[in-house]
Design a protein that fits this description.
By secondary structure, the protein is of the alpha+beta class. The protein has one domain: Alpha-Beta Plaits (2-Layer Sandwich). The protein has five helices and four strands; from the N terminus they run E-H-E-E-H-E-H-H-H. The strands form two sheets. Strands 1-4 form a two-stranded antiparallel ribbon. The protein has a two-stranded antiparallel sheet with strand order 2-3. Strand 2 and strand 3 form a beta hairpin. The radius of gyration is 13 Å and the shape is globular.
């Protein structure tokens, strides 16, 4: 089993979960985090740290979020590891209450986002 980051994380990108991960299995995109299923050790520490309840065990991912299982695996191969907590985006609290955010998912890595703003 592994854990999966789902749609609730999009544009919130709180990184409280990253801080407690003992194996650095989180990868950062421009506005979303993913968990590398090959690195996750099922410790469950990240679940309670997520303020928007975006993280689920892979066998408990809601039906309408199942595509995020493959998406985490795909993007973890492309995005850089994030091992330290970062500040949430300034509008994260607004996005925390928004549903149906998949259309806002950026496939740019966190590094690419930083490069684009430099």
């Amino acid at each position: 089993m592994t854990f999966v980051v789902t749609e609730s994380c999009i544009r919130c990108k709180y990184t409280d979960c990253v801080e407690v991960c003992p194996v650095d299995c989180f990868h950062a995109g421009e506005n979303f985090l993913v968990i590398n299923p090959e690195e996750c050790i099922d410790c469950n520490l990240c679940v309670d740290e997520c303020p928007v309840n975006a993280i689920y065990p892979d066998d408990e991912v809601p039906e309408d979020q199942q595509s995020f299982i493959a998406l985490n695996a795909e993007l973890a191969k492309k995005w850089p590891v994030l091992s330290v907590k970062q500040a949430a985006p300034p509008d994260a609290d607004h996005w925390a209450g928004v549903v149906k955010k998949r259309k806002f998912l950026s496939r740019k890595s966190g590094d690419q986002a930083d490069d684009a703003t430099s």
